[in-house]
Amino acid sequence: MEFRVLRYFLTVAREGSMTAAAEFLHVTQPTLSRQLKDLEQELGKKLFIRSSHRIFLTDEGMLLRKRAEEIIDMVNKLETEFSSMEETISGDVFLGGGETDAMRQIARVVKDLQLSYPNIRYHLYSGNEDDVTERLDKGLLDFGILIQPADLSKYNYINIPAKDVWGVVMRKDSPLAFKDTIKAVDLLNVPLICSRQAMKQTFSKNEFADWFGEDFGKLNVVTTYNLAYNAAIMVEEGIGYALTLDKIVNTSSDSNLCFRPLEPRLESGLNIVWKKHQVFSAAADKFLKEIQEKFSSLN
Question: Is the pTM of this model over 0.70?
């Protein structure tokens, strides 16, 4: 399977048309069509459903698209790592993480590094723990920022010197908005919008479930989310109350939403993690050393 043909395949999948893809790739349509037929024969699977106007992916084609994107991302990352092996440190650092105000800590490290190493570029990927660890394990990210509770057994990690505060985001005209803090009993009879990571019961200790105690199973969870932006829209439209972290949803004076912390107070620690025995590019290695120096002193 040739890398070039995978690029051809992804272009056709994106354009939805053999003609448009051939024009984009500057190849003839018969050449492109033959390459993709050879790919289908090599895999022994039909990748496209051809209609008179468009081309659609089969289930096998959708799987190949996902894997081909990962392969191309990995090859691009490898090329940038080798191109950065010069006396002047340059290159790319790939970071993934959930929505958290602790990203400010990372941003300050990046800002300090920019003074000495302006040719290092940073690429941010937002996702929950499952999204981030999947990309870490595949080598598509150098580092991940995980919000506890999280499974750290496969990774090296450093504690980020920050805590995220859990609470409830609600409309300012909601019945609970007059309260200064929110207790477990307040949430038993209202529709909740919850983080999927917080709801997971796969950890030896889930502080979020422990906070609710025996009432955890009685919660009326109407929606789950992995990133808070869309959850906030659901709150604005009156779907329910969002259990989330402070400072990641706009609750300023010009917003229709407000945040109330949980009582008793519930905080989550954070970790920056990387694969054990990871071989870093020069840029990623410099970033790690800066993180270790800054965060170790603060911890």
Answer: no
